[in-house]
Amino acid sequence: MSVNISNRSFRPYTGEKARITRAYDYLILVLALFLFIGSFHLHFALTVGDWDFWVDWKDRQWWPLVTPLMGITFPAAVQSVMWTKFRLPMGATLCVAALLIGTWITRIFAYHYWNYFPINMVLPATMLPGALVLDAILMLSNSLTVTAVLGGASFALLFYPSNWPLFGMFHVPVEYGNGQLTVADLFGFEYIRTGMPEYLRIIERGTLRTYGQYAAPLAAFCSALLCILMYTLWWFIGKWFATVRYLNKI
């Protein structure tokens, strides 16, 4: 039994209709990209907040702990969709690149040009090395368990070393007002911000100093352990959102 499929409804658009259809597709793609950039940037701003915003808040204790933990959420969810549906090992890198685009737009236009803060004071951190390793481990292993353990831990452990060349200069001690402080703290004193006067208190507090001043490695390893759990959780969240469900016709 042969079936004739030469119906006009199956013919692709040609000419002007095809051009308009492609234009709408490109428009939807661009709008979806900006929506994704805005949603990830909003999530990052609400969860990480000042720890990754001001240069004097980029301390050795909470900055390497909170930033990778909240930054691995969207990459894990997008990896779940792009790998299981399309076999594209680029979910984490795409997310981090989108976050950097939105962050740089905000820092330059809203805080540098509008509020006159120095761009060095609001430099965003980078998570691209950890995202590249996360995508590479998923591509080579094709395993959620291996990616969560090795990739999630690498995402957190690579954060502080990859950002140290960018922000190490701000930890140089200087003498100011008969006292000694870092360049980052000097930024905080010179450029006063609204809200609670957090620039007047010590940002880095806690009991990690008890372990011999090694606050950053302990915070990084703690973040690595939590990133393993966070990656697995958001992988299944992304898988749940990407599942298509149908209603049975009565």
Automatic annotation (TrEMBL):
The organism's place on the tree of life at top rank: Bacteria
Keyword Lyase belongs to the record: no
InterPro entries to which the protein is assigned, alphabetical: NH3/CH4_mOase_suA_sf, NH3_CH4_mOase_A
Residues that span the membrane, as ranges: 23-42, 62-82, 94-114, 134-160, 214-237
Family annotation (Pfam families): AMO
The keyword Oxidoreductase appears for this protein: yes
Protein name in the entry: Methane monooxygenase/ammonia monooxygenase, subunit A
Molecular functions per Gene Ontology: monooxygenase activity
Keywords: Membrane, Monooxygenase, Oxidoreductase, Transmembrane, Transmembrane helix
